[in-house]
C-alpha cells in the first residue's frame, strides 16, 4: 500500500481576525515572534472544518504573513528613479499569492523595458514615493544613507 501525503493551505481569509500593525515597533515585534493568535487559530480551524468536513490532519503547521496595503490598492510595480536603475514590486494588498504569476510577469516586463500589455494602465501601479528627507545643507540624515536608505 502506497502512502500519500496531501497538504492543504487555508488563508488569507482572516479579515475578521486581522490585527493592524500601526508602528515600526509593532512590525518588528510581530516579525520576531510570527505567531498567530488563538482567535486566528480558531478561525482557520473552523474554515478547515467547513471546507473539508471529516478531515483529521496528522499535523498542522502555521505560518504568518503581513498584509501590506498600498494607497492605490494595486501592487507597486515600477522604477524608483529616473534612470530606471532601481525597480520595486511590493504591496500585495492581501492578494499577492493569488496574483503572483501575473504580478511577476508584469514586473519582469517593466524591468526588461517591454511594452505594458495589461488592461489597467501602468500609472495605477506606479510606486508612491515619499519625499526624500534632507537637511538644510542638502545632505541626508545618517539613517537614510546606504545600506539603510537611498539618498
> Largest sheet, order of strands side by side?
1-2
Low confidence ranges: 144-151
How many strands, which pairing sense, and closed or not: the largest β-sheet?
2 strands, antiparallel
Taking the alpha carbons of the first and last residues, their distance comes to 63 Å
Mean pLDDT: 78
Structural commentary:
This protein is mainly alpha-helical and 151 residues long. Strand 1 (76-79) and strand 2 form a beta hairpin. It folds into two domains: 7-66, no CATH class; 76-125, no CATH class. It starts with 23 loop residues before the first helix and ends in a 39-residue tail after the last helix. Strands 1-2 form a two-stranded antiparallel ribbon. It is built from three helices and two strands.
Summarize this structure as a short list of keywords or feature phrases.
3 helices, mainly alpha, disordered C terminus
Write the layout of secondary structure elements.
Blueprint: H1 24-33, H2 38-51, E1 76-79, E2 87-90, H3 96-112
Brief description of this entry?
The protein has helices at 24-33, 38-51, 96-112, and strands spanning 76-79, 87-90. With 151 residues, it is mainly α.
Amino acid at each position: 500500500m502506497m502512502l500519500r501525503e496531501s497538504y492543504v493551505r487555508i488563508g488569507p481569509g482572516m479579515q475578521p481576525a486581522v490585527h493592524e500593525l500601526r508602528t515600526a515597533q509593532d512590525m518588528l515585534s510581530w516579525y520576531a515572534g510570527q505567531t498567530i493568535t488563538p482567535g486566528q487559530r480558531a478561525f482557520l480551524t473552523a474554515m478547515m472544518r467547513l471546507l473539508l468536513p471529516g478531515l483529521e490532519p496528522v499535523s498542522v503547521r502555521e505560518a504568518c504573513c503581513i498584509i501590506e496595503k498600498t494607497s492605490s490598492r494595486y501592487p507597486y510595480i515600477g522604477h524608483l528613479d529616473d534612470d530606471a536603475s532601481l525597480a520595486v514590486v511590493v504591496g500585495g494588498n492581501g492578494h499577492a499569492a493569488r496574483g503572483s504569476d501575473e504580478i511577476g510577469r508584469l514586473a519582469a516586463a517593466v524591468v526588461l523595458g517591454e511594452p505594458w500589455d495589461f488592461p489597467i494602465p501602468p500609472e495605477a501601479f506606479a510606486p508612491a514615493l515619499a519625499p526624500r528627507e534632507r537637511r538644510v545643507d542638502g545632505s541626508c540624515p545618517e539613517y537614510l544613507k546606504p545600506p539603510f536608505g537611498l539618498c
